[in-house]
Design a protein that fits this description.
This protein has 235 residues and is an all-alpha fold. It contains 7 helices and no strands. Helix 1 runs parallel beside helix 7 and helix 2 packs antiparallel against helix 5.
Length: 235
């Protein structure tokens, strides 16, 4: 019987991009939506062009810092939880290796292996890297999904800034009379492009990403502009 050919074949996946792609898309989307919504709300309330521009720049700075801090704190909490789970698993492997092997084998039985083969696989994997096997198959942890707080913070802050700069550039160049129109239209174009780009990078269907990002961005901008017009009329 011939041995199995273990040479790798050409197959490209996108799951290794999950960590930074999520933070980058979230940051850029928030940058466009929050800044454009802020501009539309202030403009609809009747603010002067200079005030609108200063408000949008302030929103960029505050938003970028908020995104960085929020991502760092939340992802760091995830990382702390992962480390605590690994520490508990390491202790259990030292205290009861036989029970941990049975636990791992039961996972493989649940995935379709018969009991003898599952026990053999569990033994082989634990002999090679017991903690790694349990981290992957029991806890669902891997290098791909590992929490990286600093990476998430920098990606979110940078992408938020890039996203926020786009509507700010429109504010700086548009005439006051057409500012609301130009910011609305251009922001929807930016959001559609972001949705298409993120879908392409992530290997998903481009149309799904495009309409989803653009639609919810339009809802956010419409609500904020309506609120601004309402408060402006009351004032």
């Amino acid at each position: 019987m011939k041995g199995i050919d273990l040479r790798s074949h050409a197959e490209h996946h996108h799951s290794d991009r999950i960590g930074w792609l999520r933070a980058a898309v979230l940051g850029a989307n928030d940058g466009i939506v929050s800044t454009a919504s802020l501009v539309l709300g202030v403009a609809a309330a009747g603010a002067e062009h200079r005030t609108i521009l200063l408000t949008s720049v302030s929103g960029l700075i505050a938003g970028a810092m908020s995104m960085a801090a929020g991502e760092f704190v939340s992802v760091h909490a995830q990382a702390d939880t992962e480390k605590a789970d690994l520490a508990r698993e390491r202790t259990e492997l030292t205290r009861d290796p036989v029970g941990e092997r049975r636990e791992l084998a039961s996972i493989y039985v649940g995935r379709g292996l018969d009991a003898p083969l599952a026990d053999q696989v569990a033994g082989k994997l634990m002999a090679h890297d017991a903690l790694g096997a349990h981290a992957r198959d029991e806890l669902g942890l891997s290098d791909t999904t590992e929490a990286r707080p600093m990476q998430a913070a920098w990606a979110s802050a940078a992408s938020f800034s890039v996203g926020a700069v786009l509507p700010i550039a429109v504010v700086a160049t548009a005439t006051p009379a057409h500012l609301i129109l130009w910011v609305s239209v251009s922001s929807l174009v930016f959001l559609a492009g972001l949705g298409a780009l993120s879908a392409q990078v992530g290997g998903a269907r481009m149309w799904d990403g495009t309409w989803r990002v653009a639609f919810w961005g339009a809802v956010a901008m419409a609500v904020t502009a309506g609120a601004g017009a309402l408060f402006g009329a009351v004032a």
